[in-house]
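Objective 1b of the project was to move from sequence-level analysis to a structural picture of ligand recognition. The entry below was assembled by the postdoctoral researcher (A.K.) and checked by the PI before modelling. It contains the amino acid sequence of the target and the SMILES of the bound compound, zinc ion.
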Amino acid sequence: MTETPDDSPAQHTTDQAETVQARADWVSRLADDVIAEAARRGTKPVAASGISPSGPVHLGNFREVMSPHLVIDEIQRRGIEAEHIFSWDDYDRFRKVPAGIEGVDASWSEHIGKPLTSVPAPPGSEHDSWAAHFRSAAEAGFAEAGVRYRGISQTEQYAAGTYTEQILHAMRHRREIDAILAQYRTLPAAKDEDEALQRALDASSGAASDDDGSGGAEYYPYKPYCTACGKDLTTIEAYDDESTEMTYSCQCGHRETVLLREFRSGKLVWKVDWPMRWAHERVVFEPSGVDHQSPGSSFQVGLQLAPVFGWERPLGPMYAFVGFGGVAKMSSSRGGAPTPSDALAVMEAPVLRWLYARRRMNQSFDVAFGSELQRTYDEWDALLRKAAAGTAGEAEIAALERATSTANGPLPETPRRVAYRTLASVVDITFGDEEQIVRILGGLDADDPITDLDALRPRLDRVEAWVATHMPAEEHTAVREQADREALDALTEAEREGIALLLDGGQGLPPIEEAWTLDGLTFQVYGVAKVQRGLEPGAMVKGDKELSAAQRAFFALLYRLLVGRETGPRIPTLLLAIGRERVRELLT
Ligand SMILES: [Zn+2]
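Corresponding predicted holo structure:
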């Protein structure tokens, strides 16, 4: 893990960073900044997220949600009234037909140019629009992750005329707005070799690269959705500030004159819309992705456009990419990058929250879906042990608290935390047979045996889903149906002796039946090679390469005899999973 000296260099000073807080981490420091900024502006701390529900909301977009969530949640934990608003930019145009949505083909391009709430939902959806379908799916994941906010549908806002005064204001100030935007239009476009930016632009909803309303004979910051065809392939031909009379024409042939103060079919262009809403909602904090941070992008332009609406651009640190690894084809094939719900199917909500809370916003990271997820869980369990032992650092404790609870209370926890990789091996070997799982896990801890699988939930449920969907094919283990006679007959004398020591004990080792716990079997399997080299089975040996090689060779032998491969789950776990009688059958 690499640490960078500061999470958002533009926004705080050394003095603030050194202020002692109950929770000493980047979230707490940003919360300090947001509280101070809100006080300076004479308003309450309001953070905003905004997402265009143009397709599945993936784990990268989720940082747009988690970052303000964590900061507002910290402020609420301090007992200060604060709000996280979530703008569903569902009045944005349908820009392109995303790939990989089941039942959606190129014919959907007929809807390009309509608001997302006017595009039909993908086939089979219970929702009445494209936007509602993807918003609903995303919100289910957000809720499970413990994220609370006030959701705002921009379609509803525009349809209700909420922004009418702001629209008329923007039209009156269109020359001023045009002049501001003109300063950026001449800037060179982002370089293709700027890979990070390019990836972001490719991945983004497109809002960042949205046009700014230029192109017509006169500049207008407003775009009508044609009342005949529903699309925004429109051009404003005339506008009168006094009467608000507006004439527009559409590529479909429709042309009409309306009173803009009464007209509800249209919106401010994105680069003007966003700053207008900062002012309307009195937003103090809104982080954004790298795609919004390039020269001429909406966030940069917003610095000068927000004052047109009587507000200042919010604090807006950039957040870095969230990638993913090890996603099985079956899930990535339906819509590309995985979503929070995909992640929550294989990991508990606190673990997902922890991944976002522990990294500063300018650090990118990957959410692991493949074997690396087992390591993520090892780290998580190690942190929980450190916290229980009182040896975790302040920032670690802060991240842990943000992961396991919100200002609203704790998230569901698993009472008995058996290692994810152990559970995965057991579930894999038993094909999820719960009776067998209880039998095997009952042997894990002799002093406090597990008798009830509910104590292992919800973690066990996540493991079962992971084994079924994401466990790499080469890691699945199939225990031999019967002993490999040929291999057993061909054992060397030393190998035969090793197996006898493992099963029957001797020279300080007990019979395997008496070692039938995870710790006991670990002692047993590592002890065999020591005994064979004339050592005590419990001898502490460090740096003996020959001993290590002998142990590895012995394990490889066991894998061959038990599962017919050179590798597999940890041997003690494997032995527990196979069961006492069966182990004897396969090894003799
Ligand atoms: Zn039209």
